[in-house]
Amino acid sequence: MKKSKIIFIAVMIVLVLGLLVLPAFGQSPITAEIDRNNISTDEAIILMVSIDTSAGPSSQPGLPPMPDFQIVGTSSGTQMQMINGTTTVKSTYNYTLRPLQAGTLTIDPITVLVNGQSYTSQPISVNVSQGTGNRQPAPNPSMSSLQGLGSLSSLLNGAGLLAPGSSAPPLDPADAPTELVGQDFFIEGEVSNPNPYQGEQVMYTFRFYQAANLYDQPTFEPPAFSGFWSEQLEGQKEYTTEAAGRRYRVTELQTLLFPTSVGEAIIDPAQLTIPGGFFDRGQVLRTQPVALTIRPLPAGAPADFQGAVGQFVIQAAVDKSEVEVNDTVNLNVGIGGFGNIEALPDPVWNEGSAWRAFDSKAKTETEIVEAKLGGTRTYERVLLPTTPGEQTLPGLTYSFFNPETETYETVTTDPIVVNVTGTVGANQAPVVAATSDSSFAMPAGAEQLRPNKPAAAVSTTSSTPLTQNGVYWMLWLLPLILIGGVFSWGQYRQHHDANADLRRSNKAAHKAKSALRQARKEPATANVAAGRILSGYITDKLNRSIDGLTTKNLAELLGTHGIEAALTDRVTTCLALSEMGRYAPSGTNLADNNLLSETEQLIDALDAAFKKI
Asked: For 401-421, what is the mean pLDDT?
């Protein structure tokens, strides 16, 4: 009998765990779709890849070979949605594809790593008919994804802030640098505006000119961008140009910059290391420093100006127009446009004395649109009316400096009227007044209350005294047992939390080895995976993130933990190779398995070095 009970309990546990795990396997975090399935050779489509990152960090999509399509544009962004208290975060990648021939074309499955696990989308079929030869302008993927922001994006569009512009064309051969003549490899860095205002967006463009084949992947080290808030654009541009009778393949990487201080500023040189071959020692290329003069904002700013630079609109609405005294109403405010959305100052709140206001944390969503950083910042303020009648929420004003017109501008919302019903204290409990003899006076109307109903007679059928009942004493012990349990649980949680970092550090190597085994199954993303796995191992081992550290800072950090310089150099080289894998020109080849093997050897060496400390 006892054995059958154990089997029954085991079966039930397995069934429950199966029900809990089944949804995780049944739903993939990656979806891929196109905006339409029937086009001609004159048209283009948008391939939209969406990754649910709520389950953990994800890699960029690994696109399959596309011999039937030409990628003519890319964009990316992040979408956040909250439904019934559940927040979902999705990373979106949009690719504009132009078909190269007619027929039924197929986009093969796309692969992505989410929290170390590989997922694959379904293949997509496209019916392409023969066109007339007059190609239509390609749709803008950034515009398409931005429209999903809701009513505020419609307001931006109505204000003219989302009017489509023309993307920067590839470099004209006549504008090729004179130093390029005769060079097999050349790099340069330039900014779109060397004399911006403080807080104005500047585009930094890095170009790599290649007239000869590479023996191996080059190592790219971007500038530190000291004195700027930076946002690197995802993806890269590739095209060809001619100079001095030679054809060059050009790879562009772009970074959005927002200067944070006034005066002279220098962007340090970017560096690209070209590996050598059997008969070539290789070379190290550096760009020239880029000098900028940051202008201060002009005088004459409005009184409510707090430093916003860009182009913005504002809107406000309440969730209900009629409310009772001491009930709440939600004021929803949205600011959207183009500029440094992450550093956007809050508006000046002015509800007035008829309201009590409670702040809530702002939510920010950003999007790259036509090579400009844009997005929205939304607020939800809880308001409590204190006075009955028609109460007006004054319109909000928001002032900013528009660098395109070089003027200060102010946008406003309309006043909102809310009808507040009831009387002050109507929803509060009645107050009982105290008399002079310390007794309490009954509230008005209490004399009309019904008399209390007589209580039923108490049954006295039990002849055993209560103190002789065992249950009575067990109930007295119950609080002591609960107190002891709470104390023991607190001690366990304290010990568990105190050793969380140690456990994560001890499991870092095992976690990294598991990720490496998985990465070997996905050769297309092996380069990116190697750097991510090595960075994750170091982060877990040191209990601090190394994202954003320069090569010099990372070397200093490892040195402070007793890691030798030779081993540190191997780490920084491996990370640089992995980073370059993301921006490798098409047609080049990197020994993916060698990079993964080097990563595994580095983890073993680092683990041994950390254990000696």
From this structure: 91
